[in-house]
Amino acid sequence: MVSVIVPVYNEEDVIGHFLEETGRVLEETGLQYEYVFIDDGSRDTTADILTDRLANGLPGRLLGLSRNFGKEAALSAGLEAAKGDIGVIIDADLQDPPELIHQMIDGWRAGYDVVYGLRVDRTSDTLMKRSTAGMFYKVFNKLSNVDMPPNAGDFRLIDRAVIDALLRLPERNRFMKGLFAWVGFPSMAVPYERPPRKAGDGKFNYWKLWNFALDGITGFTTMPLRMWFYGGALVSILAFAYAIYLTIRGIIFGIDVPGYTSIMVAVLLFSGIQLLSIGMIGEYVTRLFNESKQRPVYLLQDVIESTPLKTHQ
Ligand code: UDP
Ligand code: MG
Predict the structure, then answer these.
(1) CA–CA dist 59, 71 (Å, integer)
(2) Is residue 310 part of a domain?
(3) What predicted TM-score, i.e. pTM, was given to this entire model?
(4) Which pLDDT does position 35 carry in this prediction?
(5) Distance between CA 280 and CA 84 in Å, rounded?
(6) What is the ipTM metric for this complex?
(7) For residue 126, how far is its CA from the centre of ligand 1 (angstroms)?
(8) Which ligand is nearest the CA of 71, by number?
(9) Is the dihedral of CA 262, 265, 270, 271 positive or negative?
(10) Is residue 253 part of a domain?
């Protein structure tokens, strides 16, 4: 059985359309399937629409989170509730074309445990988003020792083995793309062009994306913490050499008082570096703090199961 995992947050404009297209593709596969919707604290009628559809034979369930926990938490909830041998993670806004599910299932049949959608053409995203995303993938892959394919989104098919592996990861910081990369398993890419949103608005602004990127980097590498050791070592060596130079010069030529510029430069430069490195430590301490609270990743408010109808069970 295929579990189609769909996080939804205020998607009333597009959800009907999504169900129509995805339903058609799923019927074509001939496989048994269920939907796992995660209502991430929507304030519109998304939940009502889905509840109604579930009551009318749409197979699966709707998990209502108690508030908006973010897409990453919603996906974790969805993975936990999925019962299938295969999970397909897909956005509700039709930016992840459901037709690709066919190729994903072919890939799975060929023995791949992960078949991910690869966005080859991101022209539907703004130039700013594309270039910042590109930079993020570069930095992430340079710093961390897990390999994250650039421009792969959350849209993917994963085998039950991968779902179980993901569920074993205890961290609260659910940076899914990183977790997917971390668990590994034989993976295959299915390239596609990412169309613009069918309806409704994007839910991520740049501030959210920046914090998302920080979560990703701090969650998967300690390099930003450790690089200050090397930076500090380099500066110490230079300072030591400079001190020797100044001492010798002082002995030979006597002491000259003017030195305002060099002192100012040194003070400003090093206080800057120190603040930066303290801030970096702060980023990690924040995350340690959050992890150590051991709060659940999400809270369920209710679960609505589909009412079995003649064709589905
Ligand atoms: N989403 C969610 N919780 C959030 C934000 C988004 O569950 O806090 C869902 C949203 O309903 C959609 C998917 O995550 O199904 C992707 O959201 P969006 O299209 O806004 O992201 P983008 O395509 O810009 O990456
Ligand atoms: Mg989208």
Answers:
(1) 22
(2) no
(3) 0.79
(4) 96
(5) 41
(6) 0.93
(7) 16
(8) 1
(9) positive
(10) yes
